[in-house]
Automatic annotation (TrEMBL):
UniProt lineage: Bacteria, Pseudomonadati, Pseudomonadota, Alphaproteobacteria, Hyphomicrobiales
InterPro entries listed in its UniProt record: Brnchd-chn_aa_trnsp_AzlD
Entry's transmembrane regions: 6-30, 42-60, 72-88, 93-110
Residue ranges of coiled coil: none
Protein name per its UniProtKB record: Branched-chain amino acid transport
Keywords (A to Z) from UniProt: Membrane, Transmembrane, Transmembrane helix
Source organism of the structure: Ciceribacter naphthalenivorans
């Protein structure tokens, strides 16, 4: 493989960096100037939370891969119980991740 054959990989690397990291760094620079309780920062948090929840809902309702083999009731039950465990534990993220994963794993093992 010659250097001329590698240029597409360089373009892909640059485009990937430009599309993600550049905007992250700009966000850090602008975000440092915002007050902790500002309306702009509250809006950014709300949008970020909505995006995460949209992806989570998509994975639960329209799963792909091996998750698609699990029944909807198992996915919904794991999510609901996992969220309840998250709240009961004092909003510990590790509990909110481990509990539904364990429930899904157990449910798939016995089905």
């Amino acid at each position: 493989m010659t250097a001329a054959d590698l240029w597409p990989y360089g373009v892909i690397l640059f485009a990937g960096w430009f599309a993600t990291d550049l905007w992250r760094w700009l966000g850090v620079l602008v975000g440092n100037r915002l007050a902790e309780g500002s309306e702009a920062l509250s809006w950014v948090r709300a949008v970020a939370t909505a995006l995460v929840m949209a992806v989570t809902a998509k994975l639960i309702v329209f799963p792909t891969g091996s998750l698609a083999d699990s029944p909807l009731w198992l996915r919904l039950g794991a999510a609901i119980i996992g969220f309840a465990a998250f709240l009961v534990s004092g909003q510990k993220v590790v509990v909110g991740v481990v509990v539904p994963l364990a429930l899904l794993s157990f449910g798939l093992a016995i089905l």
